[in-house]
């Protein structure tokens, strides 16, 4: 039986549904890890130093991103040799299995260092799977799309990253709402990981009835597929120059703008501004909901006026406006701009028992005239009734949570939404742009690598690097320390914009439009 | 425009070298700092970002300089 011959004609909508759903689930799987980074750091890494534990998780997060290009190479090669469909079936199952296992791993306290090692290994598998999935889905849809409409049709695949993040946040929010904070901290955080396996199974059932892409099936039946896609893609100067241009002139800037708008914004709200985590999720969910349709719009627009015009406009506007946007965000919850109602301040002390651990918790709640409520807690970790001392230091954890008022919440939602809009401009057309840059025989491999280096490495490392810049500037006492993290996306975005504007030509981007 | 593309090839090569210098001077102290976060960032900067940016941008600059990107006009 020849599996590359389509078994039945597929309508473009069934292709979109099957492709998008699987890709969406992969993004969901990938992002719940990032969205639960703070909880995971306490479960899987030694918690003596919360910052170190958080950075360890970010490092694991980065490991997941850094390994993506290798997934792109491995699965891209397979996809160009044996076909798009079977390759992204494998990536789907690999991702689902790894995610489920992360949800089952006992904590560091239970099994020691085996816990972070297993989590790290599963995270690497997730990165590999994602590296193979996206290029396959984008190529598969583009090869089904009518001529002149690739931007519109592939933009549906482009929504999946944001919708996957959106659903991951919704599942986490729902789980948090249904459980007490103690239950969520003890075992509830595992639920979003377990949910994945059900979604993967449904997606597998849908995908297994799809037929191979017509362009690849035709190439294979004519014996025109590549026998060594890696060599053809990267060992050939003619193709390599387009791979480099796709990376430095498009994917690199797109990656940092994506992660600034959707991940750094979340990290900034939660860690720099100390906004209540549930409010942060609500803000992000609303912004993503309002922004997602624009992926389709800008994908469609790129069919009309060109991919380059849309992507470069988005990149330029983003890098010029980031500092103003983040300044406004920070000042919105800056307590120096608000008046406290001192007479309403409450202070409370309580003993808290969580398993074998006993803490003495001091809580201060401050109310402000505009409706902002600030909860500050100082937690003394106790051992036999006295303060626990590790390495000569008393173990005290301090936390601040700001519950913003309704007006401020909408202002923050609007400011995050603008950033999502920039994301839709640069990300909506990029799948079609990459697909049209490379021929069928090496398309999966060639487009996957720059995409995953741009997004996985340049974009994926953004939260870690920017957070580091902010904490460094804070330690040095800089007044506008909170804006320092933006230099990374601004500089990378600016270099990418200049390269893209000067070197990308219409002829290059219309070479393979069939 | 072709002359600008070629000339900028030199700029990308210089930028690659400059970024390489910056990444080494920034990343090495982190790498040997002895702290967990310093080590993580040192590894990321020295072994991931540095080779990618320096080698990738240099090859890109070289291609621009020899006119690889002007042949597609």
From TrEMBL, chain A:
<feature type="domain" description="Major facilitator superfamily (MFS) profile">
    <location>
        <begin position="15"/>
        <end position="511"/>
    </location>
</feature>
<feature type="transmembrane region" description="Helical">
    <location>
        <begin position="449"/>
        <end position="471"/>
    </location>
</feature>
<dbReference type="Pfam" id="PF00083">
    <property type="entry name" value="Sugar_tr"/>
</dbReference>
<keyword id="KW-0812">Transmembrane</keyword>
<feature type="transmembrane region" description="Helical">
    <location>
        <begin position="53"/>
        <end position="75"/>
    </location>
</feature>
<keyword id="KW-1133">Transmembrane helix</keyword>
<dbReference type="InterPro" id="IPR036259">
    <property type="entry name" value="MFS_trans_sf"/>
</dbReference>
<feature type="transmembrane region" description="Helical">
    <location>
        <begin position="309"/>
        <end position="326"/>
    </location>
</feature>
<feature type="transmembrane region" description="Helical">
    <location>
        <begin position="486"/>
        <end position="505"/>
    </location>
</feature>
<dbReference type="InterPro" id="IPR020846">
    <property type="entry name" value="MFS_dom"/>
</dbReference>
<keyword id="KW-1003">Cell membrane</keyword>
<feature type="transmembrane region" description="Helical">
    <location>
        <begin position="410"/>
        <end position="437"/>
    </location>
</feature>
<feature type="transmembrane region" description="Helical">
    <location>
        <begin position="87"/>
        <end position="108"/>
    </location>
</feature>
<keyword id="KW-0472">Membrane</keyword>
<feature type="transmembrane region" description="Helical">
    <location>
        <begin position="114"/>
        <end position="132"/>
    </location>
</feature>
<feature type="transmembrane region" description="Helical">
    <location>
        <begin position="187"/>
        <end position="206"/>
    </location>
</feature>
<feature type="transmembrane region" description="Helical">
    <location>
        <begin position="12"/>
        <end position="33"/>
    </location>
</feature>
<feature type="transmembrane region" description="Helical">
    <location>
        <begin position="242"/>
        <end position="260"/>
    </location>
</feature>
<dbReference type="InterPro" id="IPR005829">
    <property type="entry name" value="Sugar_transporter_CS"/>
</dbReference>
<keyword id="KW-0813">Transport</keyword>
<feature type="transmembrane region" description="Helical">
    <location>
        <begin position="153"/>
        <end position="175"/>
    </location>
</feature>
<dbReference type="InterPro" id="IPR005828">
    <property type="entry name" value="MFS_sugar_transport-like"/>
</dbReference>
UniProtKB/TrEMBL annotation, chain B:
<dbReference type="InterPro" id="IPR049211">
    <property type="entry name" value="DUF6814"/>
</dbReference>
<keyword id="KW-1133">Transmembrane helix</keyword>
<protein>
    <submittedName>
        <fullName>DUF6814 family protein</fullName>
    </submittedName>
</protein>
<dbReference type="Pfam" id="PF20664">
    <property type="entry name" value="DUF6814"/>
</dbReference>
<keyword id="KW-0812">Transmembrane</keyword>
<feature type="transmembrane region" description="Helical">
    <location>
        <begin position="7"/>
        <end position="28"/>
    </location>
</feature>
<keyword id="KW-0472">Membrane</keyword>
<feature type="transmembrane region" description="Helical">
    <location>
        <begin position="40"/>
        <end position="65"/>
    </location>
</feature>
């Amino acid at each position: 039986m020849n599996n590359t011959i389509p078994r039945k004609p597929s309508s473009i909508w069934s292709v979109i549904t099957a492709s998008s759903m699987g890709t969406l689930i992969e993004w969901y799987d990938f992002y719940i890890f990032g969205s639960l980074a703070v909880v995971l750091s306490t479960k899987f890494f030694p918690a003596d130093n919360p910052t170190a534990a958080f950075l360890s998780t970010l490092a694991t997060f980065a490991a997941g991103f850094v390994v993506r290009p290798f997934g792109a190479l491995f699965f891209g090669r397979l996809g160009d040799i044996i076909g798009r469909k079977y390759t992204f079936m494998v990536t789907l199952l690999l991702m689902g299995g790894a995610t489920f296992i992360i949800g089952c791993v006992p904590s560091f306290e239970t099994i020691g260092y085996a816990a972070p090692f297993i989590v790290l290994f599963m995270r690497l598998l997730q990165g590999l799977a994602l590296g193979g999935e996206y290029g396959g889905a984008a190529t598969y849809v583009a090869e089904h799309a009518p001529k002149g409409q690739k931007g519109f049709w592939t933009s549906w695949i482009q929504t999946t990253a944001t919708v996957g993040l959106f659903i991951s946040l919704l599942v986490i929010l729902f789980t948090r709402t249904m459980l007490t904070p103690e239950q969520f901290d003890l075992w509830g955080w595992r639920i979003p990981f377990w949910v994945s396996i059900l979604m993967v199974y449904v997606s597998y059932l849908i995908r297994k009835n799809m037929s191979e892409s017509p362009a690849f099936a035709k190439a294979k039946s004519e014996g025109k597929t590549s026998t060594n896609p890696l060599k053809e893609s990267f060992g050939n100067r003619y193709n390599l120059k387009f791979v480099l241009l796709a990376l430095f002139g498009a994917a690199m800037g797109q990656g940092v703008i994506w992660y600034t708008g959707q991940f750094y914004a979340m990290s900034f709200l939660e860690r720099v501004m100390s906004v209540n985590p549930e409010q942060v999720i609500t803000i992000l969910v609303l912004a993503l909901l309002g922004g997602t349709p624009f992926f389709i719009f800008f994908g469609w627009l790129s069919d009309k006026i060109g991919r380059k015009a849309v992507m470069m406009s988005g990149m330029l506007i983003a890098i010029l406006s980031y500092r103003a946007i983040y300044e406004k965000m920070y000042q919105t919850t800056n307590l120096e701009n608000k008046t406290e109602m001192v007479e309403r301040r409450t202070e409370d002390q309580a003993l808290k028992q969580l398993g074998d651990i006993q803490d003495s918790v001091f809580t201060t709640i401050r109310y402000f005239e505009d409706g902002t409520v600030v909860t500050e807690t100082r937690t003394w970790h106790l051992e036999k009734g006295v303060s626990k001392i590790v390495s000569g230091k008393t173990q005290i954890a301090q936390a601040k949570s700001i519950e913003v008022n309704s007006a401020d919440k909408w202002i923050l939602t609007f400011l995050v939404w603008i950033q999502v809009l920039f994301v839709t401009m640069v990300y909506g057309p990029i799948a079609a742009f990459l697909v049209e840059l490379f021929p069928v025989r090496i398309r999966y491999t060639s487009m996957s690598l720059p995409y995953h280096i741009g997004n996985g490495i340049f974009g994926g490392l953004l939260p870690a690097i920017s957070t580091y810049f902010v904490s460094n500037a804070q330690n040095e006492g800089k007044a506008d320390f909170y804006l320092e993290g933006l230099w990374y996306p601004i500089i990378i975005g600016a270099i990418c914009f200049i390269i893209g504007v000067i070197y990308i030509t219409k002829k290059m981007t219309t070479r393979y439009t069939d | 425009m072709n002359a600008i593309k070629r000339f900028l090839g030199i700029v990308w090569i210089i930028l690659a070298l400059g970024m390489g210098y910056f990444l080494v001077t920034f990343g090495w102290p982190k790498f040997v700092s002895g702290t967990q976060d310093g080590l993580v960032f040192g590894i990321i900067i020295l072994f991931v970002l540095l080779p990618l940016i320096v080698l990738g941008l240099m090859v890109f600059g070289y291609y621009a300089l020899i006119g690889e990107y002007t042949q597609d006009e």
